[in-house]
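worker-03 picked up job from queue 'complexes'. Input manifest follows; two sequence lines, order preserved.
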Amino acid sequence: MRFAVDTGGTFTDLVVEDVNGDVRLYKSSTTPDDPIKGVLDTLHLAANDFGLSDRDFLLKGDMLIHGTTRAINAIVTNNTAKTAFLTTMGHPDVLVFREGGRAEPFDFTADFPKPYVPRSLTYEIQERVAYDGRIIEPLDENHLIETLESIRQEKVEAIGVCLLWSIVNPIHENKIGKLIEEHLPGIPYTLSHKINPSLREYRRASSTVIDSSLKPLMGSYLGGLKERLKDAGFDGRVLVVTTQGGAMDAADMAKSPIHSINSGPAMAPVAGRYYSSHDTGVDTAIIADTGGTTFDVSLVRGGRIPWTRETWIGQPYRGHMTGFPAVDVKSIGAGGGSIAWVDEGGLLHVGPQSAGAVPGPVCYGKGGTEATVTDASVVLGWIDPNYFLGGAMHLDHKAALKAINSGIADKLGLETKEAAYAVLKVATENMVHAIEDITVNQGIDPRDAVLIGGGGAAGLNMVAIGQRLGCKQVIIPDTSATLSAAGALMSDLRGEYSATLFTDTSNFDFKGVNGLLDNLLSQCKLFLSGPGEGCIDHTIEFTAEARYPSQIWEIEVPLRGGLISNEDDLAKLHSDFHSTHEDLFAISDKQSDIEFVGWRANISCRLRDKHAFQLVEDCEVESNQEFRQAYFDGVGFIDTPVHKFESMDSELFITGPAIIESSFTTVVIDPEAKASKMKSGSLVIEPAP
Amino acid sequence: MSIELKAKKERKLDGVQMAVLNKRMEAICRKMSNTLLRTGRSGVLNSARDFSCCLVTGDNSLLSVNESLPIHVLRGADMMAASMKEFHPELRRGDAFMHNSPYHGGSHAADHTTLVPVIDDDGIHRFTMVAKAHQADCGNSIPTTYHGGAKDVYQEGALIFPAIRIQENYKDIDDIIRMCKMRIRVPDQWWGDYLAALGAARIGEREILALGSEVGWETLEQFALQWFDYSEQLMISAVRNMPGGTKVVHTRHDPFPGMEEGVDIKVEVKVDTESAMIEVDLRDNPDCLPCGLNLSQACAETSALLGVFNSVPADVPTNQGSFRRVDIKLRENCVVGIPKHPTSCSVATTNIADRVGNATQRAIAELGDGYGMAAAAAIIPPSIGVISGSSEMTGGPYVNQIFLGWGGGAAAPHNDAWLTLGHIGNAGLSYLDSIELDEMRFPMLVKGRHFVTDSGGAGRTRGGAGVFCEFGPTDGEMEVGYVSDGNETPAEGVRGGGPGGCANQFRRDPNGDLHPLESCEQAIIPQGHTIVSYSCGGGGYGDPNERDVNLVVDDLNDRWISEQTVTDVYGVILNDDGSVDINATDKVRQHNLKK
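worker-03 finished. Artifact:
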């Protein structure tokens, strides 16, 4: 039996796939003070459902794949370790300068970002290596030891070391690592050439200090998770989802915790890719995952999940660059818990603030006082207060009404229902903009894509979003409420290795490059016989990072084989580069040589058979069609048919207005939209034109 | 009212349609910019983002700009498009034009601009896509794109293209390409940059043709009309919100070859809240000078607009509509006006333009607290100079502008300065070079790069610190061209704020001894020597004695200011353990503020 647990801002989701391939979903509240408790809570729910004790249930588990926002939350709330930054003498401000750049040229109301490590905890080290690896100035060990002594006095909890050109000659960084272990035993540290051997000192330094600052926290979190699961009876393997949309062993993650930064949202597109191809055969999809707190958009283009090379924590130029490519996910503060508010000028806003898991929306009755999207949906009759989470949680309709009235309607001079609808409308606009942002950047026309809705709050306005974008189909999979966790169960175990070697087509270094590729291959093989052992099958992909001479932004070109043995292989790569460049930028320079900078190998080990991924039908849900009063734009409150998702017949074709609800989600079918349920269990909707 | 016009009026677009079309226009400009950044060959493009992409209407009004260098695009794109139409009354789909003439709307000769007229299926010219890119070299008589000493355009030496057709039917006109390759240093690099700018303009053309056939050209025309009105309305509200009055501000550009006395600049700003107009008068200034620092008309107008738009809320769009509310008075043959051929404008986008823009926003600050800004740093220091030489590593000659670090930003009314602003005309958009990338591409070693303590102008909000940078060649000698204003006159503070630190530059010999260099020079740095560059800091806003005490302590801990400055300038008295002596501080600050 395999488990996937995704800890979100509001809910902790669990997907269980048993030995027969049957899939079941569970959801419980996230417990921010002790997130592991939330993980154990959902497992307890599942054990109950299986009619087993927690211990007996957990004993059946072979594998648990975990997605967590622990690392990103720690960074955003400034709760990472007190970290020192060691840099080459003369270059103390690498983290302050960053790479320059700014977004709005005429906006001088935003402060310049603070460096990830303050200048007061930055230490310059006497040493210098040249671009070709020559040592220009040897490491001054006495000076270093004095520095380590000052670091001890500052009560630093972690150390990041990034020296210029350590990627070409790591001797000084390695020596510093040894001396840290000797003089500051027990203080975790990260060396830049190990965590991210890539060109450009800011990105590498940023990776390094972020990684080291997370080590104490993620070390104890992941250690605690394994231990408490073990205590509860789980004896299987614990994997953690990575920013790149794969999975790695928890123990390895604890050693390089930067890979867990976008752990949660990176999984949704993995599930999205499965559903778009399985349900519609379309290989371009927009995956919109609406949780309680955030709205995450990701993509599938041509059957692949596009990456972004520049990943920022926070806004571009104002946040911190992770230095790693990542699944391209655009996140905005919008979800069921998003707070609606009216500014002094009388303009309605929704989010980015969220009521989160605690206190949650007003209708949860847990102390929330500000109206949220969920409250508005209750007022509109879209969410049934008696059937939230299948009736597990009762919502307070009156409180929601009151909050919408006092917080929104009174201030805008609108009727309650109009105010509630306006909240949903603004939320929809915010989400549409987020989608347009990422699709433009990745060159996708939303009208050619399938929109896949995931997350507990997706159904409220996904059809409206699809209509705004001109998507022909909206899919709400049966696992939509726990889409990221479902993706985690479908994900591959991944290892990634890279190295820098500069050469060009005019004087190609066959020996050097092939030696390097061979080395990358050995690392992949080592991974395969280590973490990857027992996988169903695996693929290894090599890519070159290349550019035209004197360009500085490389593009990735896949290698057709594992080596570049002869002029013919090189010519193929050369022409592949031209066509990739032309695809991306509409031009190529076919007469020109190309330069190679970086080389990368990815290994993916498949953990799951390719059989269908389908939720178990819950026979207990009655299929009686009910009606309730719900509000629709231009129609007002009308008696609206309510269908139960679980027991919907695949022969049934529904035309909106209608509501389709399950234990986990409510799907609002706007007037004139057409909905039906596919054999796969997914709901497919054609928005009104 | 004609029937057609009336019909247009009735097709008024609603708020949602306007918002969506505006997003689409912005997305088009963003795609253009992305292409230029990713495919440009010279450092000035791919690293420093020294380019701009914008969209001009068929009747030559600037409509949409995407996060482009402000000095490039507020004015100029419209004038260049107009000259294209004037010189080529018959435009056809597939045409592209090259433009860099400062006498016809260009900024300076180094900014090669590709103009692509967008022609609909009926042959009507609807829009002009504009992609402007600063070149690493433009064929000047010396290897720099900023020829400060050029006494006229002939000595400057650049090839001048007043809207020359460079493509027909989507095919290059090779005659022009060959001319460029014969005159411009590192021709392959130029060719790559030309392709990048052309690619950007063509991508924009493709997108807008698709949008036009999707929503209809009339709709786009209607959008432009309404968008201009909307932008003007926002500008009217912004101006009405400002303190009214007239303010004259003086500043001075340092002495340079051809202007040995320096240049005094006078800017008069009048904010009329009743008519919601801002007037910037630049006429009472010296005649054009026999050097490369004269402003082109595009740069003169843009620099004044910069100071204005830095002083209004950022949500006011910068386009023809909002520009209607700014009246800029220029005169012919004026160093900050309308130059006559063959006046050289080689350095028009930076030095004197910076002085005008900074003086404009200072004037607005002096009209009322909470408005305008201090002055940002003057440039161009050696740390962003044009380096050239020849080496084995580069396989022959190399010429490129590097961007290791430049000026600090100006303090704003409520925020400390943006540290990596560069200068007012750049607004911080440029990227900074990675040390590793520069050392990999050029035969050079960067010995150090860091901010300079106490170089940000003191104030209630602090100016950005200047940058120290030291580098030298590792293979043969290196020529470094730079034109560094601010060696004498710093970036001024406003409303009691202090000035930023001044620029300076030296050559360090192998013994470590420093030798002063001129502020405008093509410095020759032999192997084994280094060039040492100090860039300017930006000015502060408001009295430093009003700065939050906790921020002063943070500034000290993070080495932005020294202990002496904490006491002498900010009036904060520290106890022996580093904590603040609140009583003593209050006393000192009250005393200082009374003065």
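worker-03 released lock.
The mean pLDDT of chain B is 94.
The CA atoms of residues 132 and 145 of chain B lie 15 Å apart.
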